Amino acid sequence: MLTTELSEAEVSGLRANKERLQDWIHHSCQWGSGVRWGDQPTETGMARLALSQEDKQVRDWFVETTKSLGCHVTVDSMGNIFAVRPGRRADVPATFIGSHLDTQPTGGRYDGILGVCAGIEMLKVLEERGIETEGGVGVVNWTNEEGARFPKSMISAGVWAESIPLETAHSLLEVPTVASLPSAASAPESMKSALEKINYLGTIPCSYKSSPMAAHFELHIEQGPHLVTAGQHVGVVTGVQAYRWYRINVTGRDCHTGSTAFQHRADAMYASARMMVRAREVADKHSCLASVGIVEVKPGSVNTVPGFVSFSFDIRGPEIEDVNVVDTELRKEFDAIAAEEGKGIAKPCRVEWQLDFETPATKFDPGCIDCVTASAKALVADRPDPESLYRTIRSGAGHDSVFTNKRVPTSMVFVPCKDGVSHHPEEFSSAEDCVNGASVILQAVVRFDRKRFQ
Amino acid sequence: MLTTELSEAEVSGLRANKERLQDWIHHSCQWGSGVRWGDQPTETGMARLALSQEDKQVRDWFVETTKSLGCHVTVDSMGNIFAVRPGRRADVPATFIGSHLDTQPTGGRYDGILGVCAGIEMLKVLEERGIETEGGVGVVNWTNEEGARFPKSMISAGVWAESIPLETAHSLLEVPTVASLPSAASAPESMKSALEKINYLGTIPCSYKSSPMAAHFELHIEQGPHLVTAGQHVGVVTGVQAYRWYRINVTGRDCHTGSTAFQHRADAMYASARMMVRAREVADKHSCLASVGIVEVKPGSVNTVPGFVSFSFDIRGPEIEDVNVVDTELRKEFDAIAAEEGKGIAKPCRVEWQLDFETPATKFDPGCIDCVTASAKALVADRPDPESLYRTIRSGAGHDSVFTNKRVPTSMVFVPCKDGVSHHPEEFSSAEDCVNGASVILQAVVRFDRKRFQ
């Protein structure tokens, strides 16, 4: 049956299969299982860094599985994998569900993975129900969304959107401090070389022109506490907050810890510690977030006061203007802290800011948001007080959808996760919450497909 | 001529050779030259980590040079090298000048190196002047004094003094963060294996019983600003301040930087930064020092709030009681900071202290101090206002002499260094200051030898 031939009630009745979705998730998590936190077989975190051997294994499974569900699979020059189930019309781009299979070094089983598995589950439901779509439908696995191994998050969706040059992405080197890749310290690998090594450097240009989409939908755990605290089942995501990533370098002077009085020091670590403390206070004042995730200290000896510290710095806020306010205020504050440390020897610390990445606030497509809203309503329609069970929400984290939104209609679905915790081995979303999200996104794709050809 | 046959005036007239001492220093610095800071050939720092290939090369030179000056050379099971020039009496232990040839990763040309080279210069002066000592005299090069590569400073003098078990030292692993040894991250090497690799695992047990000494004298740059600021030539070192080295581990919870409000975080880096800031304030209040040299942050990803931070912590004070006061106060403060961070999610950070090393305040031997004092007086006797040109001083830094002092009479000589800076490539002591120190220690050894057999 064609999607356009379904009744509204039939669309609203479409559901993903709860047990099967769990199977897709946990089967795929056999590659790159991380820290164990419980007794059950699935109670471990994930450590599947982008383009690692484990990532290759799960990619191979993704290709094989989507092919077995009738998809045509292509790989582009960033290793993005597009699996398309043809529709009735061959001349139009497919509607995609997309997310990522890479994880943080101490990540969990849901961030990204749930989104890709919901895409596979959509393919399975359509097959099972004998539904043919008007345009094709597809699932995309984006490369290195996390930015954990190669330090630009969502980089491959960014290249696809032609927002990031291919050359920049190909030459990006892995972070040497990622614990699970110890060899990175001696010879950090480039993305291109890593793609080649696992045989996922595709021949198709990475671009929305070569791999076009009608729309991009993404299901994701909230990674925050709002839904779970309010007992809500679904978040209809209207956009993503703005953020900037920096590298902050603080230069002082090495000296001996035992024989150098405080007033004779230009201690880059002490100055950095003061900056980190102040950063939270200033960000909080402006309802923004500021976070330090990576810290490198040189020379790195117990009895030498560090002369150099470099740290990553992540500022987020509702709009890019809010981020700018924090940026401006902290530049002054950091300068003042640096000037103070080392003034006793007339060699004050110096601080420099290097902007690595920025994205303004993202507003998702109203048409896609409508499809998600209608599907969320349909999901909870027969429950008591249905309107209280879903809400609109803005994402704190960036997602591949931020980049797809630059080129094609995009929106997202959030489901609750335990304690709002993510990027942690104990990240968890119940089977019920997972399948709720998968049912919503399945319906959203069908609704979008119907709307395109009305 | 025998030392006991010299007149007091002849002893007071003994001088090291300024140019030759410079030659010993800079010749030895060809192995492991570090960061260049000036145009002159000798204007570089040093990066000669203990038991590296560069350390092997300078050791080979040390052995060859002392042998050519008539010494019998032995190597013990910690790679300490003892070069002894026999005296008239074969049945008594030799009087030693000792220090170390290893450096910090961003160290200079004087810390340790000046002391060993002053020992070689002593051998040369005695040969040149045809002086025979009553007991033997020797030069010792101690292994891994810096504690930069293997994170226990003065460890090999410690084993010699039987204060540190050989097994502990042999199994000590190198620090993976030392920049100049990138391979250390993947497979950190043990001291024993490193000793074997450069062929300096000697067969003689490392002990004051197997390699006995009559006394140990050490010449060192001050590594602080007191002498240089006061325009004084020589410091007669009466002892060393107390210190403790810790590893502080702060455990919070990994979470996403974009979607986790501050009140939902247990940010181990933020808590650590607050501790580092507070540590200086508390130490300063008690006239102590507190320093952080090594910082490790996990998982080390731009967009994950760190759930674990481990940092080295060095507290120093005039007496161990002062260090204890700071320790006690900071344990309370750190606990309070940890309890604050994460209380919003009822998962406060935890902090644990691991004591890696401690040494109480050291008081050097009055007899040795007398020998140094008399020699310093003799050096400046013919200058205007001679009493203003030397002083007694306490060392802020630890030295091998801290351990030799536990078993044999010991004292030290300090000379000024530029700006009081050490553990930095630009560490510098003028040729005049170097030779002043070498002349004082030469005389001190001769005076000690005469006193022994009076």
TrEMBL record, chains A, B:
It holds the Pfam family Peptidase_M20. Keywords: Hydrolase. Residues 243-340 form the Peptidase M20 dimerisation domain. GO terms for molecular function: hydrolase activity, acting on carbon-nitrogen (but not peptide) bonds, in linear amidines. NCBIfam families: hydantase (TIGR01879). It comes from Onygena corvina. This is N-carbamoyl-L-amino acid hydrolase. It comes from the Eukaryota. Belongs to the peptidase M20A family.
